[in-house]
Amino acid sequence: MAACDQYTIETIGIPSLVLMERAALETTRLIEQLLTPTQVLVVCGTGNNGGDGLAIARMLHVHQISVTVVLLGDQTHASAQTKKQLQICDYYQIPFREELPEDLAGYDLIVDAIFGIGLSRPITGAYAQVIQTLNQAQASKVAVDMPSGLNANTGAIMGVAFQADLTITMAYRKVGQLRNKGPVYCGLTVPVDIGIYRNQSI
Ligand SMILES: NC(=O)C1=CN([C@@H]2O[C@H](COP(=O)(O)OP(=O)(O)OC[C@H]3O[C@@H](n4cnc5c(N)ncnc54)[C@H](O)[C@@H]3O)[C@@H](O)[C@H]2O)[C@H](O)CC1
Ligand SMILES: [K+]
To answer: How far is the CA of 104 from the centre of ligand 1 (A)?
Structure first.
C-alpha cells in the first residue's frame, strides 16, 4: 500500500495532501451515513494516519458535529501533511487536547487515527495505555485505514490493538484487517482505477 501511495504521488503526480483529503472525505461520508454521531473524539498520531484523522475531524466539525481532537506524540515530529492539517484545524478552532479526557462517557463515537500502515514496532508506554483506555469506552469505535496496533503486512497484533467496530480503509484491504472483529469498508480513495495498480509491478 505504501508503494501504491508512492506511485500515485510520484509517478501519477497526485499530491499526498490530495490523497489525504480524499481519504478523509470518504471516511467522513461513511461515518455520517452509517453512524450519525453527535459527540466525536478523534485520537490522532503524528503520521499521515493522524493527518487523515485531523482532516476527518475538520470535516465533521464543518458539518456541525461536536468534535474533540486528541493529538498524541510530539507535534514537532509530525509529517508535513499532518502539520498542514493541524494548521487547518487551528483555523476552525477545533478543540484540541494532548491527553485523553478523564471521562469518555460523553462521546458516542471514537475515531482511531493513531497508526495506520506505518506502524513499525510494538506499541508500548503512553500509546499502549491510550489504546487500552479507548478499548474500555462504550462509544462506537471506528478505525481509520487500520485498527492501530495491527501490522498491515502480517496481521500481527503489535502489543495492543484498537478494537474497532468498523474499519474504513484506503484503497485496499490490508492483511491486518483479517483480525479485525468489525466490518471493513474499503473506501475507494485512491484516485486511479484499482486495475491500474494490479497491472503494475510495484
Ligand atoms: N492510501 C491513501 O489514500 C492514503 C493513505 N494515507 C494515510 O497514511 C497512513 C500511513 O502514514 P504514515 O505516516 O506512513 O504512517 P502512520 O501514520 O501509520 O504512523 C507512522 C508514525 O508512527 C511512528 N510509529 C510507528 N510505530 C510506532 C510505535 N510502535 N510507537 C510509536 N510511534 C510509532 C512512525 O515513526 C511514524 O512517525 C495510512 O495508514 C493512511 O491512513 C495518507 O493520508 C495518504 C492517503
Ligand atoms: K488507525
So the answer is: 25
How many whole angstroms separate alpha carbon 113 and alpha carbon 56? 9
Predicted model pTM: 0.91
Q: Name 19's Cβ contacts closer than 8 Å, sequence gap at least 6.
A: 5, 8, 9, 170, 189, 190, 191
Beta-carbon neighbours within 5 Å of ion ligand 2:
49, 112, 143-144, 148
Give the torsion sign (CA, 59, 60, 66, 69): negative
Q: What are 88-144's pLDDT values in tens digits?
A: 999 999 999 999 999 999 999 999 999 999 999 999 999 999 999 999 999 999 999
Domains of the chain: 2-192 (3.40.50.10260)
